[in-house]
Amino acid sequence: MNAIQTPVMLRVAQKKIHGPSFASLYFDHSLEFKPGQFVMVWIPGLDEKPYTISHHSKTGFAITIEAKGIFSKKAVALEEGDLVGFRGPFGNGFNILSSPDIAVVAGGCGMAPLAPLVEALDKRIVFIHGARSKDFILYPERFDTPRQICTDDGSQGHKGFVTDLLEREIITRKKAGTPPLKMVYTCGPEIMMYKIFLVCESFDIPCQVSLERYMRCGFGVCGACVCGRQVVCKDGPVFDSKHLRTMEDFNKTALLKSGKPVQLDQYFSWRCQ
Amino acid sequence: MNAIQTPVMLRVAQKKIHGPSFASLYFDHSLEFKPGQFVMVWIPGLDEKPYTISHHSKTGFAITIEAKGIFSKKAVALEEGDLVGFRGPFGNGFNILSSPDIAVVAGGCGMAPLAPLVEALDKRIVFIHGARSKDFILYPERFDTPRQICTDDGSQGHKGFVTDLLEREIITRKKAGTPPLKMVYTCGPEIMMYKIFLVCESFDIPCQVSLERYMRCGFGVCGACVCGRQVVCKDGPVFDSKHLRTMEDFNKTALLKSGKPVQLDQYFSWRCQ
Amino acid sequence: MTLHFLGKTLKNPLVLASGVLGNNKQILERVHENGCGLVTMKSIGPAPRDGHKNPTVIDLGCGMINAVGLPTPGYAHMEEEWQALETRTFPLNASIYGGSVAEYQTVAKFVAAKHPDFIEINISCPNSEQHGMIFGVSEQSAFDVVSAVKQVIGDIPLIAKLTPQAPDIAKIAKACEAAGSDAICAINTAGPGMVIDIESKMPILAFKKGGLSGPMIRPIAVRCVYDIFQAVSIPIIGLGGVTTGKDAVEMIMAGAHLVGIGSGVRYRGIEIFKKVNQELNAWLCAHDTTLEQIRGAAHGRDAVKNKGQAQ
Amino acid sequence: MTLHFLGKTLKNPLVLASGVLGNNKQILERVHENGCGLVTMKSIGPAPRDGHKNPTVIDLGCGMINAVGLPTPGYAHMEEEWQALETRTFPLNASIYGGSVAEYQTVAKFVAAKHPDFIEINISCPNSEQHGMIFGVSEQSAFDVVSAVKQVIGDIPLIAKLTPQAPDIAKIAKACEAAGSDAICAINTAGPGMVIDIESKMPILAFKKGGLSGPMIRPIAVRCVYDIFQAVSIPIIGLGGVTTGKDAVEMIMAGAHLVGIGSGVRYRGIEIFKKVNQELNAWLCAHDTTLEQIRGAAHGRDAVKNKGQAQ
Ligand SMILES: Cc1cc2nc3c(=O)[nH]c(=O)nc-3n(C[C@H](O)[C@H](O)[C@H](O)COP(=O)(O)OP(=O)(O)OC[C@H]3O[C@@H](n4cnc5c(N)ncnc54)[C@H](O)[C@@H]3O)c2cc1C
Ligand SMILES: Cc1cc2nc3c(=O)[nH]c(=O)nc-3n(C[C@H](O)[C@H](O)[C@H](O)COP(=O)(O)OP(=O)(O)OC[C@H]3O[C@@H](n4cnc5c(N)ncnc54)[C@H](O)[C@@H]3O)c2cc1C
Ligand SMILES: Cc1cc2nc3c(=O)[nH]c(=O)nc-3n(C[C@H](O)[C@H](O)[C@H](O)COP(=O)(O)O)c2cc1C
Ligand SMILES: Cc1cc2nc3c(=O)[nH]c(=O)nc-3n(C[C@H](O)[C@H](O)[C@H](O)COP(=O)(O)O)c2cc1C
Ligand code: FES
Ligand code: FES
Question: A153 and A52 share a domain?
Answer without folding.
Answer: no
